[in-house]
């Protein structure tokens, strides 16, 4: 079997002629060379693709009386406030896991450094010129809402968290708020044992 040359070009053209639904004008195959063969690909076999008419979803008839569908609304967008002019403070999300000596030295558990084995999430938020009494923090399962007179932060969390088991601590000397949240993992009994 040859991989390049005129017989391969002829085999490809014969296959294309078998698969095509309309007769194309015959071209002189003797003048083709290996450079022309290199330009052919899987898309050149068979008839050209049909052009489908795109249908706009805005004008499709809906059976329900809903104003919009669930696919059109981004998850968590109900918490976004686009009219608030306050800037977003700098923040950092750090995933944490508790590691004991038997995990580190003996490898007795199946823990590894991946994020799948992390149990908690630490969110560090820098709040310059802010007092602890000015901070208003509201937690949802997948959303952290922080408001101060100077800053606003609406943070969609990468994992669901246990709201009741979290804690927040404000460090005045660093002007930083640390929020520690315990992650809600549905398969913890499989991953952590």
Automatic annotation (TrEMBL):
Organism superkingdom: Eukaryota
A GO BP annotation: axonemal dynein complex assembly
Any one of the GO CC terms: cytoplasm
InterPro entries for this protein: DNAAF6, PIH1D1/2/3_CS-like
Domain PIH1D1/2/3 CS-like as annotated: residue spans: 88-182
GO molecular function: dynein intermediate chain binding; protein-folding chaperone binding
UniProt cross-references to PANTHER family, sorted A to Z: DYNEIN AXONEMAL ASSEMBLY FACTOR 6, TWISTER
The family this protein is said to belong to: Belongs to the PIH1 family.
Protein's recorded name: PIH1D1/2/3 CS-like domain-containing protein
Organism per entry: Amphiprion ocellaris
Lineage of producing organism: Eukaryota, Metazoa, Chordata, Craniata, Vertebrata
